[in-house]
Structure formats: C-alpha cells, structure tokens
C-alpha cells in the first residue's frame, strides 16, 4: 500500500504547484497586454480628438 500511495502524493505535488505557476504566468502577460492596449487606445483617442495633443 505504501508503494502505491507514494507516487500519488508525488504526482499531486508535481501536478499541483507547477500548474498554478503556469496559470500565474499565463495571467500576467494578458494583464500587461490589456494595459498596453488600453494605453494605446487612450493615446490614439487623445491624438484623434485632441488637436493640441497631436
């Protein structure tokens, strides 16, 4: 039973934490991209609608 239990625990540990790391890594670039898009859009609108800015 011990031999059967050990790989499960290791598997859980291995599958648990790297998955969270991957999720975090996947989320942060999306946030950066969204922020960059917002900045680009706001700059674009400022240049388009505000002659003083352009």
Structure in words:
The protein is mainly α and 54 residues long. It has 1 helix and no strands. The protein has one helix spanning 2-49. The chain is rod-shaped. The termini are far apart. The model has no long low-confidence stretch (mean pLDDT 62).
Features:
54 residues, mainly alpha, 0% strand
Please provide a brief summary of the model:
With 54 residues, the protein is an all-alpha fold.
Q: Quote the distance from N terminus to C terminus.
A: 73 Å
**Spatial shape:** rod-shaped
Count of strand segments: 0
Give the helix proportion (percent range): over 70%
Averaged pLDDT: 62
SSE series: H
What does the main sheet amount to?
none
β-strand percent reads under 5%
What is the rounded Rg? 23 Å
How would you classify the helix and strand content by structural class? Answer: mainly alpha
Low-confidence spans: pLDDT under 50, at least 5 residues?
none
In DSSP terms (H or I, runs of 4 or more residues), the helix count works out at 1
Please describe the topology of this protein:
Elements (H helix, E strand, L loop, with lengths): L1 H48 L5
